[in-house]
């Protein structure tokens, strides 16, 4: 069907302008739709269905979706955009005539020269129609690449000497079975051993790092060319990478004591090298989206472990898989229930669709039984695809059994009453606190108490420690013990409002002296900057430069190491007493305060609350302007449209 050539688009653009002014649309979405129109001839340029679909697609991209599902557009478009019904009706009226039903939309869009329908002649159109999903070409390409690589790698099988695997698993985990039955950690190791790809998912403290350290030892013990295996560790942020390396080193050292001389594990630890950010591993090129490593110049690795995989966005996952050499093994670790990446895609969530249910087939059941001695219970049997067979969920938390764990579980299960009861449980006093009718001053007071220890150590000066670096490390560690997390950026409950108010209060208490750069200012890097080696999300403290009295350096804590950059060299930073939950992923604070706003729209969702809670290791405080805010957030799920799962199962 050819687009309607008679359409007058004036009313449509006027309505787009009104919605943009009202804050319902980002300006970029209108600009993008105009750009798409400009690429067509007369009829295609005036096809209001195409304009409307481009507008909505761009808007959704800004909210993390990788495509527009035409079913959603036809079903409940106002809900899709989080708009009032009247706003959608006004826009749809201005865009008339619109096609009816999904089939009508498909044929209308396929008739536009700006759209490539998969299977038709491809001449690099900017939009792609794949079945009932409309994509920006870049996202379609990334999703296709991720789906193809994951499917292929998940199907690949290595030869496993079952007896040898069984013996080593007993040696690494101990003949005694822990309380958990079955032992999903052993199962994860067995499953990863037989393939080129595996996902180990689980909540905080379920032993993902503990397990992967044993997996590395198992690979080391069973690979014929173990001494030549190149192992790389990576994570989306510098901090998460340092934490991964630290935990794996510790686990391997403990393990070395257990297995004694049977395996040269210290040699393995020494050979692994530092964990790196994904950007640095792939060889990011400043000011471009491309990397030094890609299929033409693959990474030099045999085994790659990527932690905090929930933070990896679609484009990064595509780049990573593209750069992975054939024959290498990729292990993804992460918590599937955490917030998805800031950028488009919810890759780990999509890949872990079957993790909870298992859906292991007969071949997997038999293999796991033989290699690990573990029997997968009947409830986890099924006919899952290749990816389900290579995915294992760890279900027993060793660190989060107490009140924080109970609260996280209730939130994750969507149990509003359970979450409220957990927060108010008498035995949770001192660990959990809920200020349910909070005002901003409550959060400011908590920050004043929470940040005081590091500011006091700062005031005591470096003379209180053996040397300047020791002191810097101690100050950073105290700063890392407390954090205020927000759901939104703007307003009194947002990062901006709270940072300003906390800074004022600390200055008033005489703990800091405010200026552009001041001693003790916590900052977050907001853009990757290669010359200084600082990455989006890195958090540091401005402290005196021992070599240059009067000047400040920003110090970053990475594991037990500290590194610093001259403060004036950091151009893209913001104050970080309060930060978004998104940016807090991969970090843990002894006391975490989660400040929820009255109205946060779609952002205020279950995944956000769960991620905020699980950042707390010892104490968690929730503040809500009204009690109902918590329940509303727990009941709202984050949904990101993507075709990844469908493509993998094809
Ligand atoms: N099978 C086990 N036996 C004994 N201790 C264990 C076992 N599994 C995990 N642990 C311990 O539980 C703690 C949490 O494990 P680990 O750090 O591996 O969890 P994680 O899932 O990686 O956590 P996070 O998501 O916070 O990174 C560690 O102290 C670890 O040594």
TrEMBL record:
One Pfam match, given by its short name, reads RecD_N
- What are the UniProt keywords, alphabetically? ATP-binding, DNA damage, DNA repair, DNA-binding, Exonuclease, Helicase, Hydrolase, Isomerase, Nuclease, Nucleotide-binding
EC number from the UniProt entry = 5.6.2.3
Q: Could you tell me which InterPro entries the record lists for this protein?
A: AAA+_ATPase, Coronavir_polyprotein_1ab, P-loop_NTPase, RecD, RecD_N, RecD_N_sf, UvrD-like_helicase_C
In what residue span(s) does the AAA+ ATPase domain sit?
194-523
Residue sites binding ATP per the record: 202-209
Stated family: Belongs to the RecD family.
Give the misc comment: In the RecBCD complex, RecB has a slow 3'-5' helicase, an exonuclease activity and loads RecA onto ssDNA, RecD has a fast 5'-3' helicase activity, while RecC stimulates the ATPase and processivity of the RecB helicase and contributes to recognition of the Chi site.
Q: Which SUPFAM superfamilies match?
A: P-loop containing nucleoside triphosphate hydrolases
HAMAP family (UniProt xref): RecD
Q: How the protein assembles, per its UniProt entry?
A: Heterotrimer of RecB, RecC and RecD. All subunits contribute to DNA-binding.
Q: Write down what this protein is called.
A: RecBCD enzyme subunit RecD
The answer on whether this UniProt entry bears the keyword Cell division reads no
**What is known about what this protein does?**
A helicase/nuclease that prepares dsDNA breaks (DSB) for recombinational DNA repair. Binds to DSBs and unwinds DNA via a highly rapid and processive ATP-dependent bidirectional helicase activity. Unwinds dsDNA until it encounters a Chi (crossover hotspot instigator) sequence from the 3' direction. Cuts ssDNA a few nucleotides 3' to the Chi site. The properties and activities of the enzyme are changed at Chi. The Chi-altered holoenzyme produces a long 3'-ssDNA overhang and facilitates RecA-binding to the ssDNA for homologous DNA recombination and repair.
| Reactions that this protein is recorded to catalyse | ATP + H2O = ADP + phosphate + H(+)
Its top-level enzyme class, in one word, is isomerase
Keyword check for DNA damage: yes
């Amino acid at each position: 069907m050819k687009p309607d050539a008679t359409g007058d688009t004036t009313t449509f653009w006027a309505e787009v302008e009104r919605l943009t002014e009202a804050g319902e649309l980002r300006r970029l979405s209108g600009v993008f739709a105009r750009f798409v129109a400009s690429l067509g001839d007369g009829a295609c340029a005036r096809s209001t269905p195409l304009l409307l679909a481009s507008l909505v697609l761009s808007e959704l991209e800004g909210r993390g979706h990788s495509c527009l599902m035409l079913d959603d557009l036809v079903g409940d478009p106002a809900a899709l955009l989080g708009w009032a019904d009247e706003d959608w009706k006004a826009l749809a009226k201005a865009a008339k005539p619109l096609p009816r039903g999904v089939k009508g939309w498909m044929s209308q869009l396929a008739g536009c020269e700006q759209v490539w329908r998969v299977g038709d002649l491809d001449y690099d159109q900017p939009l792609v129609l794949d079945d009932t999903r409309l994509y920006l070409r870049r996202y379609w390409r990334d999703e296709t690449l991720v789906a193809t690589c994951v499917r292929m790698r998940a199907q690949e099988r290595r030869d496993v000497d079952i007896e040898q695997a069984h013996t080593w698993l007993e040696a690494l985990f101990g003949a005694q079975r822990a309380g958990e039955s079955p032992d999903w950690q052993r199962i994860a190791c067995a499953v990863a051993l037989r393939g080129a790809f595996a996902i180990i998912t689980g909540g905080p403290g379920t032993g993902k790092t503990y397990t992967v350290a044993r997996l590395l030892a198992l690979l080391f013990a069973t690979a014929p060319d173990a001494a030549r295996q190149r192992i790389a560790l990576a994570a989306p942020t510098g901090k998460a990478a340092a934490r991964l390396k630290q935990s794996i080193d510790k686990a391997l050292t403990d393990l070395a004591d257990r297995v004694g001389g049977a395996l040269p594990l210290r040699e393995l630890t020494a050979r692994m090298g530092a964990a790196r950010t994904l950007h640095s591993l792939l060889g990011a090129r400043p000011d471009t989206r491309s990397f030094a490593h890609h299929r033409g110049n693959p990474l030099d690795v045999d085994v790659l472990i990527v932690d905090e995989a929930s933070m990896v966005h679609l484009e990064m996952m595509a780049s990573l898989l593209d750069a992975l050499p054939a024959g290498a093994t990729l292990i993804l670790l992460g918590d599937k229930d955490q917030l998805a990446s800031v950028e488009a895609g919810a890759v780990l969530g999509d890949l872990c669709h079957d993790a909870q249910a298992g859906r292991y087939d007969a071949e997997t059941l038999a293999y796991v039984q033989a290699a690990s001695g573990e029997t997968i219970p009947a409830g986890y049997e099924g006919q899952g695809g290749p990816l389900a067979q290579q995915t294992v969920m760890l279900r027993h938390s060793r660190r989060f059994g107490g009140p924080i764990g109970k609260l996280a579980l209730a939130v994750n299960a969507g149990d509003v009453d359970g979450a409220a009861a957990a927060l108010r449980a008498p035995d949770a006093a001192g660990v959990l606190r809920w200020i349910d009718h909070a005002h901003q001053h409550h959060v400011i007071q908590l920050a004043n108490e929470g940040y005081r220890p590091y500011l006091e150590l700062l005031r005591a000066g470096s003379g209180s420690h053996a040397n300047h670096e020791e002191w810097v490390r101690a100050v950073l560690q105290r700063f890392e013990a407390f954090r205020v997390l927000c759901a939104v950026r703007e307003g009194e409950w947002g990062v901006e409002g709270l940072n300003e108010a906390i800074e004022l209060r600390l200055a008033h208490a005489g703990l800091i002296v405010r200026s552009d750069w001041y001693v003790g200012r916590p900052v977050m890097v907001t853009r990757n900057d290669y010359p200084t080696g600082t990455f989006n999300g890195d958090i540091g403290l401005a402290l005196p430069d021992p070599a240059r009295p009067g000047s400040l350096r920003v110090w970053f804590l990475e594991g037990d190491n500290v590194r610093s950059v001259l403060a004036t060299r950091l151009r893209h930073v913001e104050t970080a007493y309060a930060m978004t939950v998104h940016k807090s992923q991969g970090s843990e604070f002894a006391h975490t305060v989660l400040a929820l706003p009255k109205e946060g729209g779609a952002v205020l969702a279950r995944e956000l609350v769960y991620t905020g809670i699980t950042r707390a290791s010892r104490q968690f405080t929730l503040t809500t302007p009204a009690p109902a805010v918590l329940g509303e957030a727990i009941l709202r799920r984050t949904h990101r449209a993507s075709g990844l799962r469908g493509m993998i199962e094809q």
